[in-house]
């Protein structure tokens, strides 16, 4: 018994020594690579899988770095790896982005039990080199990054635990009928910048995803609106496709939509009450072929209709009635690159009392010549001095640059909430 006590005391003293060595550890001293330019995904500690606590340094692949302050994370990114190293069973966050990995074999994942996030973005992964079921067996996997690879097909099967799947910038052209089966916990699916066309909707692949809140389908080959989307959807990204028509009452089954982006399509006419949505905050229809405006829901805050063919903005169409007890929330409108010859009617300020900015920019009045309205940017609540300064400095050039406009048109950030 005395010997056991001495052994226990020795281990406690050794553990204290190890802890004191890591107490002032500076992460940047040993690891200067950034884990990709993305917002981190924060896990709720109350929902993490049950993992034993480690009083001593834990196992780590020799090719990677495991911060002592974060023993459940393994960083293998930006290391020119061609293969996936063996993954210790305790790892919860695995970062393998920005390497030269082409295959995902089952071997390295043999003992993996608790992993919740895997980042394999910016590699060279091909679908036929992913071992069948390698992801499906990871029962605690919540987030999977596979964007910027060479996937020709959707990487199924996947675990039912998955909540966020990023597949942008691949070569996916099909969605098999069973590809999304069982993914009832999925809240975000990013399929932007692939080769999807309308044929992917034949089997209504999204209809059973009852918790899906964000769907990104931008930069594909779609010509029609995707049918049978789940009513849980809040963010829908369809920009840079070839959609020419929105069916009447299309959004009746999507009452929770907060943000809708459909810029760079072929829309010509919008049925009057298409966007009669109670929660819509952002609507982007820039770079289409619209000739007139449409009804604006009271909840809308930001409206983008630049680069269309609108000659006159009929405020009555946008705002048919006034309700002092339920005022319109619109604060920003962008209408540059249309065919306007005069500013928006002052009646707009009765309909939209919170409006702060109207960006007129340049207008395409004639085929070969653009013109600029006298007030390229209207801003409310400026002092006379501020207004004069804005006029003198042509605020469109200082604050409304082309780079900013392009940023506004970019698709939903994968971490948008």
UniProtKB/TrEMBL annotation:
Oligomer status and interactors: Binds the alpha(V)beta(3)-integrin.
Function of the molecule: May be implicated in biomineralization processes. Has a function in binding of osteoblasts via the alpha(V)beta(3)-integrin.
SMART domains noted in UniProt: LRR_BAC, LRR_TYP, LRRNT
Biased composition (Basic and acidic residues): 391-402
Pfam families found in the cross-reference section: LRR_1, LRR_8, LRRNT
Cellular localisation: Secreted, Extracellular space, Extracellular matrix
Domain LRRNT stretches: 59-93
Classification lineage: Eukaryota, Metazoa, Chordata, Craniata, Vertebrata
Domain of life: Eukaryota
Statement: the UniProt record of this protein carries the keyword rRNA processing: no
Signal found in the keyword field: yes
Name of the protein: Osteomodulin
Keywords for this protein: Cell adhesion, Disulfide bond, Extracellular matrix, Glycoprotein, Leucine-rich repeat, Proteoglycan, Repeat, Secreted, Signal, Sulfation
Gene3D superfamilies tied to this protein: Ribonuclease Inhibitor
Biological process according to GO: cell adhesion
Signal peptide residue numbers: 1-20
Family per similarity comment: Belongs to the small leucine-rich proteoglycan (SLRP) family. SLRP class II subfamily.
Gene Ontology annotations for the cellular component aspect, listed alphabetically: extracellular space
SUPFAM superfamilies to which the protein is assigned, alphabetical: L domain-like
Region (Disordered): 388-417
């Amino acid at each position: 018994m005395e010997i056991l006590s001495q052994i226990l005391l020795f281990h406690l003293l050794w553990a204290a020594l190890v802890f004191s060595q890591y107490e002032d550890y500076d992460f940047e001293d040993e690891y200067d690579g950034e884990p990709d330019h993305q917002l981190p995904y924060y896990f709720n500690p109350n929902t993490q899988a049950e993992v034993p606590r480690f009083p001593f340094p834990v196992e780590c692949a020799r090719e990677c770095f495991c911060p002592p302050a974060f023993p459940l994370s393994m960083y293998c990114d930006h290391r020119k790896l061609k293969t996936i190293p063996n993954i210790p069973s305790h790892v919860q966050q695995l970062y393998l982005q920005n390497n030269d990995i082409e295959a995902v074999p089952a071997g390295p994942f043999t003992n993996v039990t608790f992993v919740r996030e895997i980042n394999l973005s910016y590699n060279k992964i091909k679908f036929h080199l992913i071992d069948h079921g390698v992801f499906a067996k990871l029962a605690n996997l919540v987030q999977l990054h596979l964007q910027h690879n060479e996937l020709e097909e959707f990487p199924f099967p996947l675990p039912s635990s998955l909540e966020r799947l990023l597949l942008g910038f691949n070569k996916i052209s099909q969605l098999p009928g069973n590809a999304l089966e069982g993914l009832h916990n999925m809240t975000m699916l990013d399929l932007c910048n692939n080769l999807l066309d309308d044929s992917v909707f034949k089997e209504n692949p999204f209809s059973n995803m009852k918790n899906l809140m964000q769907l990104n389908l931008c930069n594909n080959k779609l010509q029609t609106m995707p049918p049978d989307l789940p009513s849980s959807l809040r963010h829908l990204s369809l920009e840079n496709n070839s959609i020419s028509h929105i069916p009447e009452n299309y959004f009746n089954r999507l009452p929770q939509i907060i943000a809708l982006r459909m810029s760079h399509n072929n829309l010509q006419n919008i049925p009057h009450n298409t966007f009669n949505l109670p929660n819509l905050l952002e609507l982007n229809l820039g770079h289409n072929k619209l000739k007139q405006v449409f009804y604006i829901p009271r909840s809308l805050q930001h409206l983008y209709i630049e680069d269309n063919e609108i000659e006159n903005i009929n405020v009555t169409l946008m705002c048919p009635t006034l309700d002092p007890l339920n005022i319109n929330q619109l604060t920003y409108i962008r209408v540059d690159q249309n065919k306007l010859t005069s500013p928006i009617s002052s009646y707009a300020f009765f309909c939209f009392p919170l409006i702060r900015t109207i960006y007129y920019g340049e207008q395409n009045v004639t085929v070969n010549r653009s013109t600029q309205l006298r007030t390229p940017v209207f801003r409310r609540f400026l002092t006379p001095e501020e207004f004069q300064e804005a006029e003198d400095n042509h605020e469109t050039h200082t604050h409304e640059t082309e780079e900013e406009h392009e940023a506004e048109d970019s698709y939903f950030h994968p971490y948008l909430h």
